[in-house]
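User: YqaJ viral recombinase domain-containing protein, Trypanosoma brucei brucei:
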Amino acid sequence: MAQPRKKLEWKKEVPFGLTASQFGMALGLSGHIVHFVDYVRNIVGTELEFTGNAITDHGINTEPKSRALYELLTSTAVSDGGFYLLEGRLLGCSPDGRVFEDAPPVSSQLMSPSRKGNETKLMGVKNGKHQENPISIRIPFRSKSVRDDSLATTPSPDSPTASTSKRLARLLEIKSPYYALYDSTKRLCHPFGIPQQYLCQMQGQMAIADVDVCDFFVYLDKPVCQVVAWRVYRSDEFWRWAHPKLLQVVEWIRDGPPKSLTKDFKFGEFDYSRINVEPLIFPYDISNSKPICDNRRFPFFAKFVNPYMDPRRSREQEEILRMLSSPVTRFLFDNNHGLIKSEGVEYGEEAMMWCCATADSTGSISRCRNSLASRWCGGAPNGAAAGGGEALALLKPVDFSDYRVTCRVYTPGEPACCDSSQGCGICLRRLRFCERKLFSRLNPLASPPDIRQLTTPLCSQPEGAVLSVSQSDPIESDNDPIIVVEDGGTSSCSSVEVIS
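Assistant: Predicted structure for YqaJ viral recombinase domain-containing protein:
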């Protein structure tokens, strides 16, 4: 199982240290504590060490896709997870993601109370005394299997952490189970339906990273596409209970277990119901486009009004439901919807969805730098799809690790959209999944439109033309589009075949 280089260096330097993913085992939630201590002392680093299986590999490989779905449903841009160390470098964590928000002015920070009500936090100052901040080692967020190990200990200029106007709002923990969603019928999943070992992991991450909120997002991609999510809040009570016990286990790993540490030894139990948890995304079956209303499996959610069934749902709940039930979401994330070619970059019709983008005040999807399409077309000239707006072909991603989806945009009646002398009439866009408002405007077409009627003669494509996509310069929605290469000549860029 691939791990970031900095984490490996830390484990080599402090082999007895614990990461948040080990906290549940160290506290005895996954077997005997003495066996865990023996495993870390004598097995880790040898050929007998567990390095993964089909279930763990599935979780790692599905992580980028899971994060993309979280971004789409919540309209949230997720940053890299980072790597944090605390307590003399004895305890560490690497969350799956971080969400940054605009920070309030310094003056308002000084006046606002902390979680505990009687403390003020600002740049490591608590109750007038300087506090040592956690050591943050930035790890560019990719799938755990493809994260770049050539990293620095300081954020890059484009990282949210590089801007003083951003604050870390919450963490993201992603799980992709192999068989079914987590629910309360499974062992040690009470009282919320979240496995208790993951509650320990998230509480440890929040304590070490000094964050108050962590979203727990669970995505099942087979045999059906389903999703559920919780919002978990930091519990000082839990950390007061767990922290000394974790340091005790670290000591046993470093110095050897005492004779009193037998299979019968257990730490006192913690009442996990005292942790504050809220529903974030109620259980939903994307494959069948319907809520999962099973009070036996999800009794925690049954305590709340289900927004899928209640017309009085909030605007945010309405937007989440719109994307959950969208055919576009089902096309992108349901493995049973369309075929994905595991190798190569050519897409057949089975991996493409034709949509019409409804008019909106935010502007066109194409946004060509020299195009008149900076405004939306009110009608449907030249045979465009009924209802006006742009037509686009949405390509189903083979790889979700760049958290973008490619589409080909056709703007009705726009001659020479990219060049006054050699117009292509088609622009490629790389859309970020967090652009929920944009995706919500996409309506599938019953059949592919006649592209020759959508564009003017200047924009017609020669027979056998190839669309070329630059892999080295991904374009987000507010940047210039990737322009189509018309001549189909030799190019170092990958390409997708034009569907006529």
